[in-house]
Design goal:
The protein has 412 residues and is mostly helical. 58% of the residues lie in helices and 5% in strands.
Length: 412
Amino acid sequence: MLSSINIRKFYWNLSNRLKQIGSLLMRKNRIFAKEVLDSYIRYWITGVRPVMDTPIAFADRAATWLLKAQEATPDDGVSYGFFLDHGQMAWRLSYPETTGYIIPSLIEYGHYRKQNDIINRALTMAEWEAYIQMPSGAVQGGMVTSPDRQTAAVFNTGMVLQGWTAAFRETGNTKFLEAGRKAADFLMNDLDETGHYRSHGFFVSQNTIKTYNVLCSWALYRFGEDSGDDAYKKAALKNGEATLHMQYKNGWFENCCLTQPEKPLTHTLGYTLQGLLEIGVLAGYNKFVSAAEKGVKPLVQNIREDGYLSGRFDRNWKSKARYSCLTGSAQIAIVLYRLAQILNDESYSKAADQLVNFLKSLQLKDCTDSNMNGAIAGSFPLLGEYMTAGYPNWATKYFLDALLLQASRVNR
């Protein structure tokens, strides 16, 4: 029997979907409506043809779009994304969390393309993050808001710590080290006796454990390297050990989703896999690397020949979504490329290529609305459940990361 909460959720989702469809019929949204229709034609009828072309042109478009998303805001943060909002396509406000981890992506891309101006744009993002940092050292949840409305969120703090660590390593500027120290102290003090973080913020469901928070511990470990203080490394490893206890024998992770832990997104599975993998590499903990490999293998088995990967999986690795979470596909590709490097196993690179070549075919490049060119959508098809009807900045960020890894493999 459906509960009253589930009934309300069903009607709320149905109401929103009907509003979206109604908005697509408006003349002012005809360009986006065409993209939506095209995505469903490809999903149901023609299929997606993977693109084998060199990745750098796609990376150029992705980086250009991320910079455009920064230009779309009144500050130095990166817009949450370009979405169908209140009846029309529009840029949203800056999003501190993902601006944080866009910083290292743009620094890496700037070096790859030998463009210092792009690196400088990333550093202005890091300075903005320090300007809006909460007194506790935390980073606020949600889109940017006034100090009196900020709420601390562990995950957001860890993602911005990634940015400050990258900015410090790029410049040696101690203002980034000090902002990072306040954030790292917040993270370390937020761990409970079991090794899990507690402060999730108001923008995700409030079950006690969020396994994907292990990605914060990768940033925390890196800060331990920068500061020379092993206490941060030990805290990161404590959380990594706790994360291992959330993994089933078949590789699946418990409590590993923003809202539906019984069927986690590939997005949050990707966070967890990358966090464990990278901490394991830095610390020389092979059991963390092995856990990441165990968790990614069932996903590889679920990649279709064309590169499509379902957006959610239950504890038996059964697909639980009729759409692809494109952010998650890019993240899984990143983990696979890294495993290929670490384990010298080209089968992982081939699986990663499947995912990335699928995503290449979905990147917009000839759209008459320049606000969409270069972006990757939240879902395929476009009205899928994850970040429906728009282009979240983090989908394109992870696509860029995956493209750079593919490029490094091609150029070896």
